[in-house]
Amino acid sequence: MIEPRRVGSSHMQDISDHIFPWHDGHPVLARLEGTNDLFLPLFSTNELLDDAMRLMGVTFESIKQIDDPVQFLDSLPLLYAGVRLRVILDPHRTPEGMVHYTEIIRATIN
Fold first, then answer.
1. Has residue 81 been placed in a domain?
2. DSSP 43
3. Domain of residue 99, residue span
């Protein structure tokens, strides 16, 4: 199996006002082919969120908005049920069938 790899450049990304789907008291998490990690998708627009959820066949109850990015990211565990939790922005399928997204890199500083 080929491990997923990061492509592109790293840059600062402001996630203020980004949105995410909510269901049954929790954010909606996703799995992507080729990895065992869990993904928390964030979206910059309602249209991108609706398109991604429809493509994945996922239903949700409501949409939450990020007011304080630092507090939001600090509230998320690095592991969820023993699996790495990754935060991604605007996931979408390319015409070639691949899923493209920008990942928010979270690190603990000691």
1. yes
2. B
3. 19-104
E strands, 14-69, are 19-23, 26-27, 30-31, 38-42, 62-65
The distance of Cα 75 from the centroid of its chain, to the nearest Å, equals 15
Does residue 51 fall inside a structural domain?
A: yes
Domain count along the chain: 1
Least Cα distance to 89 among 101, 106, 75, 107 occurs for 101
The string of pLDDT tens digits covering residues 25-64 is 999 999 888 889 999 999 999 999 999 999 888 899 999 9
The pTM for the full model equals 0.84
Which tens digit of pLDDT belongs to each residue from 3-18?
555 555 555 688 999 9
> How far is 42 from 31, CA to CA, in rounded Å?
14
